[in-house]
Amino acid sequence: MELRIENLTKQYGTFLAVNDLNAVLTCGVYGLLGANGAGKTTLMRLLCDIQSPTAGTVSYDGQNIRENGDHYRNILGYLPQDFGYYPDFTAMKFLLYMSAIKGLSKGYAKQRSLELLDEVGLLQVKDKKIKTFSGGMKQRLGIAQAMLNDPKILILDEPTAGLDPKERVRFRNLISSFSRNKIVLLSTHIVSDVEYIAGDILVMKKGKFIHEGRPDEIIHSIDGKVWECRVPNGQVPSLEGRYNIGNMRTEGENTILRIISEEKPLESALNAAPNLEDLYLYYFNDEESSNGK
Amino acid sequence: MRQLIEFEIKKMLRKPLVWAALLGLVSFIAIMEYSWVVPGYADIQMAENGQKVTIKGFEAIPVDKEICASYHGSVTDEKVRTIVETYDIPDSVWEANDIDPNREYHYVHNLVYNILSSNGFVNPDGSYSGQTVEEAFGDMAPELILGYSTGWECTIYALLYSFLLWGCIVTVIVSPVFSEEYTIHMDALILTGIHGRKKCTLAKIISAFFITIAGSLLLLGICTSLMLTVHGTAGWDCSVQLGELGYYDRVPYSLNWLQAYGFACIAWFGGMLVLTSIVLVVSALGKSSFSALVISFVIYAIPMFLPWNILPDSVALWGYLLPITQMQLLKLFEFDLLKIGSITFPPVYLAVPITVIVLIVGILWSKKSFSQHQVV
User: Fold this and answer.
1) Which of A124, A199, B60, B273 has the CA that lies 20 to 30 A from A6?
2) Nearest CB neighbour to B194, from listed A48, A51, A74
3) What would the pLDDT profile of A19-54 be if each residue is shown by its tens digit?
4) Any CB–CB contact under 8 A between B186 and chain A?
């Protein structure tokens, strides 16, 4: 099973949302990491064939997905970043509707919907209208609908956005349990989501993959660029202005800073082992700031 | 497929706005039927043994029919003279809205006299004007049939306005069919399902037409049943030019009420199907359900306010064949017969091929637009 991306490009006017991407995805969980506006959602839409590429192809097992429409959609599960529900539908009715769209027989659809509602913890509220659901419940219903046809390719766009930490953990475990023998592509800008479940990470910036690999491999790319130092509290504002600061912890009169920098920021700074969050800040700090974060 | 159609119908109807609109339509139909058909405005004042007697509503209908029955048939100069001389009512009495109880005539509502009066056969003092039937109606005169046709005429009148309102409601129901999926971002989910682009799209289209056709049949069935119950079939063979309300007295060819009812059905159903097709296309192309609703409504309603009559007939005819103008009937009915070679036919027949063409184009276009929609 192989999903091959070749020279994939999507241009809106003069803006290149996806810029000549190449990748081969096989069974496993892939984390697509990037700031808002990096092109993650556009890439996912191209992979789902709900947007046409300006150039390039996506092929599944050697066949172009645009030519292989129905067969490809039959093995595809997709959870968009933000999607509405029919507020007056119950959870069960919504899944039955999606089952009909996914071509499941009526009897099997009912059985499968009940199974999935149980797995995502919504069985007790299956007859409640979706408009009464919390954001987390809606997201869980979203993953349930994506799994209805037991897809071989599962594409999840920002699935944990808006979830509280407990729900995020639950969600991650859910994805892990579903991911066997599947290609799962999970986009997020929440680092911990992919840190725990992704076997491979694709780091995307300005429409391009800037890193691809296992989490521990790509983390090594910033070896020697993460520093920890203890400074007096009064010195923090000036350092914030000059450096890309990760974690910050106050201990009495001093603050322990985690700084991501090419050069040693202070004499007292010590090299620290980088993690995925550091990597994210290294590449996206400027973009997150410009997005108001 | 059946399951998808059921879902789509439920989605379309399960909206407070739709229910409010349907409730409005039911109320409107009830008012129209009560005012015009069940029992309508039947109101007879007559003199009986020197006393003024007033009969209204259901009781007035058989009296009215009985008066008309004695004059049912072709319109001859002799018949006109007899009617006018029997019931001569000067304008002053009309205006005073009262009768002289010593005179044995029917007043206020007297179908045959009213018809002749409105066609120039009566002088202001109530006497016969001397105008002949041929002078009034030309070549059509020998084919005209006079009689009680209030049931047909008022039913068509009430149905016409009900269909116009039903058109508005169809716009409200159908415009979100595709556009709402864009608005609430369900398009991505639908279009990634194996049946999303074909069966689901088709189910949406079928559901929209099902609602339009079912609603139109229900509307037609209820109103026609009420007419037949209250007024019977009387007057089906009478000429539309001799209707009591006088709306169709300028139809330039021989047409009886049964034919007019058939033509009206063609116009209403054709108009509703064309409207549904147009709204589906707008919905599939629309950016949001609100914009689709506004655009659909504008396309539907605006032609009603355009001055088609200032245009040459050959252009105006196409304006009269737009859904709302077509469903208004009047302009289409008043248009002269069309001629292709040796075949002469009423312009309303053009609604049939137009409906078929727009239907096919609408279905294909909306299907293609939605299935190839680029999710944003």
Assistant:
1) A199
2) A74
3) 888 988 888 889 888 888 888 899 999 999 999 999
4) yes
Q: Quote the CA–CA distance of A144 and B331 in Å, as a whole number.
A: 56
In a domain, B376, yes or no: no
Q: Are residues B133 and B161 in the same domain?
A: no
Residues B290 and B259 in one domain: yes
Report CB contact under 8 Å: B374, A52.
yes
Diameter over CA atoms, chain A:
69
Residue closest to A46 by CA, chosen among A29, A21, A25: A21
All residues of chain A having their beta carbon less than 8 Å from the beta carbon of residue B11 are 86
Decide if B2 touches A, using CB distance below 8 A: no
Those residues whose C-beta lies under 8 Å from the C-beta of residue A268, and which sit 6 or more positions away, are A229, A230, A231
Distance separating alpha carbons of residues B189 and B355, to the nearest angstrom: 33
Question: Number of C-alpha atoms within 13 angstroms, CB side, residue B350?
Answer: 20
pTM of the model: 0.85
Range of the domain at B115: 43-138
Tokens 């920890």 label which residue?
A: A228
Q: Do A100 and B195 touch (CB under 8 A)?
A: yes
Residues B201 and B122 in one domain: no
Q: What is the ipTM of this complex?
A: 0.81
Encoded amino acid at B299, one letter? I
Kindly report the backbone phi and psi dihedral angles of residue A156, in degrees, each rounded to the nearest multiple of 5, phi listed first.
Answer: -125, 115
CATH fold for the domain made of A3-75+151-218: Rossmann fold (3.40.50)
Task: Answer whether B375 touches A (CB < 8 Å).
Answer: yes
Residues of B whose CB is below 8 A from A85 = 184, 186
Neighbours of A92 (CB within 10 A): 18
Which of B73, B104, B138 terminates a domain? The answer is B138
pLDDT for res B45:
74
- What does DSSP assign to residue B305? G
List the one residue out of A223, A162, A152, A221 whose CA is nearest residue A188: A162
Interface size A-B, in CB pairs within 8 Å, comes to: 74
Beta-carbon separation of A100 and B11 below 8 A = no
Q: What is the pLDDT of residues A146-201, one digit of tens each?
A: 989 889 999 998 887 767 788 788 778 878 877 778 899 988 777 777 877 888 88
**Mean pLDDT, 10 residues at a time, chain B of 376 residues:** 89 89 93 88 73 81 84 88 79 64 55 78 83 88 89 93 95 94 90 90 95 96 94 91 86 92 96 96 92 94 89 89 93 90 92 95 93 86
Among partner residues A50, A100, A145, which is closest to B3 by beta-carbon distance?
A100
Number of domains in chain B: 2
Question: Which residue do the tokens 């400074």 mark?
Answer: A231
Residue bearing the bigger pLDDT, B225 or A290? B225
CB contact under 8 A, A51 and B7: no
Question: Distance (Å, rounded) from C-alpha A12 to C-alpha A108?
Answer: 42
Same domain, B193 and B106: no
Both B181 and B110 in a single domain? no
- Last residue of a domain, which of B138, B163, B188? B138
| Residues B178 and B60 both lie in one domain | no
Q: How deeply is A267 buried, as exposed, middle or buried, from its count of CB atoms within 10 A (0-12, 13-18, 19+)?
A: exposed
Angstroms from B307 CA to nearest CA on chain A: 42
